[in-house]
Amino acid sequence: MTGSFTVQQHWPVRFGILLTDPAQRYAVKTVVSECGYEVTHCSDTHLAHVTKNCHGEVNIWLTSQTIPCGMQYGMRHGKQRDSLAQIEQVFIEEVPTLATAEFRAWKQFFKLRLEHIVHNYQRNAGNIPAKDVWLLAASTGGLTAVKQFLSQVKPTMGVGFVYAQHIEVEQAGQLVKTVERNSQWRAEMANTGRFAAEGYVTIIPPEEKVSIGKDGVLGITGESWSGRYKPSIDGICVELATYYQQCSGMIVFTGMGDDGVAGSKTIKDRGGNVWVQSPQTCTAPALPEGVIAYGEYDFSASIDELSCRFNTHMSTERRATVSDRSQ
After folding, report:
1. What DSSP character marks residue 251?
2. Class of 132-326 per CATH?
3. Helix, strand, coil in percent for the chain, rounding step 5
4. Fewer CB in 10 Å around end: N or C, the chain?
5. Are 197 and 218 in contact (CB under 8 A)?
6. What is the CA radius of gyration of the chain?
7. How far is C-alpha 327 from the geometric centre of its chain's CA atoms?
């Protein structure tokens, strides 16, 4: 799914290129630049020497040089975490002549490989923003329902969750442990300067309102949520729908009250999806019933059906995105 919002597709990544052959250097630099990344170093200098002099200036090194085991271990496993440098070996036997069909095919292949390298770097660095963000909205009985759902949903490239659960302040921190203990997803409390990250479930705190800035960065405003529900499902729906638009979504689980009814309309108005747990499978059916009766939604189903459909939906979206990029 490709939205009309201006979310960064990646944080700034700076490349260093160390290749002996000038034609290879030019070709690789051209592709890296076309993909929108900055090349801060390009030479045939030896890796061990240049990394000492480019501290902090390069995030990812592309080189065909042999990486010493000690250096490889240090760069990948935290001895230079402040620079977040990552070394990738690029083996290129021959770069086809420019402006030929063979070169175009090679360039397309290398762009896909480059995307994979950047994606792995950003995942390891913990700072890849999700492109599709879905709100998990729940109240009474919601923790059990959400836990069951997440245990059946596989982390997918580009997808992140925001979790709004009506809960007491002192219990909110337990949600992080519960999510990580019972699913493949990582979890964290929403914090200023962070964002809804790929592969993460971001927990919305009940005591303070969370905003989403124009660049997608989360902010803890210091203000209380308006209304009687904390956190406000309707309130976070406004933030998500405004920024992510058709790349936003909400799944309404078991709960009491009507928080989420107005939010469902907000998300649908911006082109997002709203799914609802079937009331007959809920511990407390009032919240799903309210969305079905007075809000807007796409379909209602059991938790097992919701999780199965979500996996299929996101897998289809991912294939469509890759297909669009390859054209």
Report:
1. E
2. alpha beta
3. 40, 20, 40
4. C
5. no
6. 23
7. 23
CATH annotation of 14-125: 3.40.50.2300
Do residues 293 and 285 lie in contact, with contact meaning Cβ atoms separated by under 8 Å? Answer: no
For 216-231, the pLDDT digits (tens) are 889 999 899 988 999 9
Tokens, residue 30: 């051209």
Q: Tell which phi-psi region holds residue 113, choosing left (phi > 0), alpha (psi between -120 and 50) or beta.
A: alpha
Both tokens assigned to 251: 């799944």
What distance in Å separates the CA atoms of residue 104 and residue 164, rounded to the nearest whole number? Answer: 47
Q: Any idea what DSSP says for residue 197?
A: B
**36 Cβ contact partners less than 8 Å away, ≥ 6 residues apart:** none
Sorted by sequence, the CB contacts under 8 Å of residue 46 that are 6+ apart come out as: 18, 65
Distances from the Cα of 69 to the Cα of 66, 80, 88, angstroms: 9, 15, 13
Which two structure tokens, joined as six digits, stand for 258? 């009507």
Domain boundaries, the chain: 14-125, 132-326
**What sign does the CA torsion over 31, 34, 77, 202 have?**
negative
Whether 146 and 136 have beta carbons less than 8 Å apart is answered as yes
Chain segment 10-46, per-residue pLDDT in tens = 445 788 888 888 888 898 999 999 988 889 889 988 7
119 CB burial (10 A radius; 0-12, 13-18, 19+): middle
Q: What is the pLDDT of residue 14?
A: 80
- Residue 320 pLDDT greater than 80, yes or no: no
What pTM was estimated for this model as a whole?
0.65
The per-residue b/e assignment along 61-76, b for 16 or more CB within 10 angstroms, e otherwise, is: bbbbbebeeeeeeebe
24 versus 7: the higher-pLDDT residue is: 24
